[in-house]
Amino acid sequence: MIKFEDAVKIILENTKTVGLEKVFLDNALGRVLAEDIYADRDNPPADNSGMDGFAVRYEDIRGATEENPAVLDIIAESKAGGELVKVKPGTAAYIYTGGLIPEGADTVVQKELTKVEDNKVFIFQEIKKGSNIRPKGGDYKRGDLLIESGRKLRPAEIGILSSVNKPTVYVYQQPRVGILTTGDEILDVGEPVEKLSQIRTSNTYSIFSQVLEAGGIPVVIGFSKDTPEDTERKLSYAKSCDILLTTGGVSVGEYDLVKDFVTKVLGVEILFWKVKQKPGKPVAFGVWGAEKEKLFFGIPGNPVAAMVVFENMVKPAIRKMRGEKKVFNPVIKAKLLGGYRRKKGERLEFIRVALEMTEDGFVARPFGKQGSNILTGMVFAHGFGMVEVGVTEIKDGEEIKVIIFDKSFMDGDLNA
Amino acid sequence: MIKFEDAVKIILENTKTVGLEKVFLDNALGRVLAEDIYADRDNPPADNSGMDGFAVRYEDIRGATEENPAVLDIIAESKAGGELVKVKPGTAAYIYTGGLIPEGADTVVQKELTKVEDNKVFIFQEIKKGSNIRPKGGDYKRGDLLIESGRKLRPAEIGILSSVNKPTVYVYQQPRVGILTTGDEILDVGEPVEKLSQIRTSNTYSIFSQVLEAGGIPVVIGFSKDTPEDTERKLSYAKSCDILLTTGGVSVGEYDLVKDFVTKVLGVEILFWKVKQKPGKPVAFGVWGAEKEKLFFGIPGNPVAAMVVFENMVKPAIRKMRGEKKVFNPVIKAKLLGGYRRKKGERLEFIRVALEMTEDGFVARPFGKQGSNILTGMVFAHGFGMVEVGVTEIKDGEEIKVIIFDKSFMDGDLNA
């Protein structure tokens, strides 16, 4: 039985990134960039106007005042996306935001300082030479590094990719994560109940959803009965996956075939079995594949334990495989309302808590029957409060560390 | 020109949820539940064992000690998913976690307190009657309300839906959000540059990605030139959308056709134009459709302004349409490193900041050229610091409110 921290360390030391692939921008959100992105052009590509107004030669507006305005013939127009026009001495061009600075012009006078009459513009004030011009390359130059490889693609990054004419981009692949639910008693949704002892699965699809959240590709391998034949057949379906998750079949019962069969069928080398944590003690981890590049997690069948193991152990591995650097859920300190007591302090315990953000910082409220194995106790939970080894009592209002798996409690309410 | 708070209020007062639809569980993550979910069976469905061990009659183990153990014939086996077996006086059954409690048995003795020899089990200790039995309906009863309509579906909720045999479920529809990019100068990705004044779009796909993040369905209506014909044609493509977003074409230039044409083509009733904020002043908002149930946002073409407007105004509307109650990005207080100064304090200003979570709370660092209209300044940003109306200076280390649009800065680093 190893410590939680050691288990996580072993997992991540044995986790490698998967390969690269090219994706279109509509599928790039949240993926991790695998190439450096450079500017294809200067930005702006040419001198242009930052205002609506008139493009003029500074010489022509020098000394202009309310009483003695500069009066210039309007001979052209420059709008965004338009042609390059010319301005000669004594003349001006209409110009709009984004319009090219006309040949000969060196200054843009904003509309508000002017008046137009009979195709002439009256300018009532001298402004600085070069005013309101956004210079070519002022934001960045062709060849500048704009986004470094390894960054996660968010809306801003995707906008930049588009602006440098990259409709497709190299990103890390997403690991395929096979989910095998084991146990004679487990029914898939839709299957008829034939025996009183049968239980409908919850883990299959809660884990499916956790894989989606973590950015992996869930593959439901199915349900295996507690027979060597069925276990062997279903495990063989996992061969194309990067990660195999099994639920059930890793505790001490005689019908626990999985741990032995993953070794026989897939060549899994088990690196640890059992972790000093509660819930989730009977978790197994191993590596397999030609270069031991694939991972195996034997996850307990208890639905709450399965959630804990996934969030703390499987999710960081999926994130590392897909190229992410921030692989762990946030850990914050929160005041624990009502406190918490337990008899033994041998294991690190994760207690379900609802979180709130207050003026005084985070507040955690234990939720649901903590000993319970039922998922309904997770409905209001946002995180797992950590009751450390050796601790048997936390007083009301005392601070504990909380691992957040759902950050939505921070969002603002419609009616607030 | 109205205040930011008033603008948000007007938007949400005019936003209604869209209809309902049934989705399969693999498409349900993040959707908002539109029906109450009840238990279809008792859970557990029958008395069953919480341990591996032996099912016995309490009468038979009463008074058992190390020296004087109870000795019972093993006559049956009860495993998870198995048949209901029987125990008679003087006998016991093997039982595994999840196995049905045999007829006649009332207590489960955990394996650790027993020894097996010659098909007999030796029990060395009396334990309480009823020990290790998980009673029928102990977690919840058939007909109990398990998840209320209106909750957002996370992995735990999806596991529960599966466990009550709901492969499909009613959720709120996602609004279709049309994106029309306007301006003669704007090129789509892949289009050849023919004039120096042409600019490649960034807004189209950054907004596309923001719509995805907000849980809407992005529809790229395309790019319209600054002519009445093209503007009219492209706007007509938006008729099937719940929300129309245009970028560009809402400032004061002569070529700003959009605001007039949305009224002509789609019957948009403009409810406000221009908000006392920076960036994002020239934003327009309106309603359209038979029951004014559809929304229109005219978003400025400046990419940073577009991001600000989307996060603060469009995202809450999308979220409300899809049934969410927490519609706003989180607002936290953070210490502003380096402080911030500006000349005028007339408008609420949003400054891009990178965020960090420290022992002392959140810390914000202004990022990129703040005046700039370029998206590259967003690459390291996680939030918008709010410089309130009337404030012209924030001192180094002073607290400001920050609207978070990217919570990933809270996650834990691989190498930490």
TrEMBL record, chains A, B:
UniProt-listed SUPFAM superfamilies: MoeA C-terminal domain-like, MoeA N-terminal region -like, Molybdenum cofactor biosynthesis proteins
One GO MF term attached to the UniProt entry: molybdopterin molybdotransferase activity
Enzyme Commission number: 2.10.1.1
Cofactor or coenzyme needed: Mg(2+)
Domain MoaB/Mog: 178-320
Keywords attached to this entry: Magnesium, Metal-binding, Molybdenum, Molybdenum cofactor biosynthesis, Transferase
Known catalytic reactions: adenylyl-molybdopterin + molybdate = Mo-molybdopterin + AMP + H(+)
PROSITE patterns on file: MOCF_BIOSYNTHESIS_2
Function (record text): Catalyzes the insertion of molybdate into adenylated molybdopterin with the concomitant release of AMP.
Family indicated by similarity: Belongs to the MoeA family.
Name of the featured protein: Molybdopterin molybdenumtransferase
